[in-house]
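Following the same procedure, sequence and fold were stored together, as reproduced here:

>
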Amino acid sequence: MVNHGELKTANVPVPRGRVLTPGMDRLEVASDRLNCVRLGKEVGNRLFGGSPPDRSYADPDVRELAAYVIADLKILSDRAGSVLLLVHLPVDTDFGPSDADLWREFLI
């Protein structure tokens, strides 16, 4: 969170990952890329009411936090004598207009 112009840590400790099945995280991420899994999740969400779609891109507080994080990363890289390079790796939904366009415009 940003508090009086400075980054502050809140909501700690960060939840730990799966202890007994650490490989399940990778499998879950990989399976989410399958269209049949996406379709199943979408149908399930519509039929049974799932979690609302992520709208954090429209939240000005999230954009402010991102700006502060990027600024801090820049300071750290300058101190280390390195160059900060942020790379956006697009996914299939990035190749057409979407709600995430606000983020792309913000980050340019």
DSSP finds four helices and two strands in the chain.
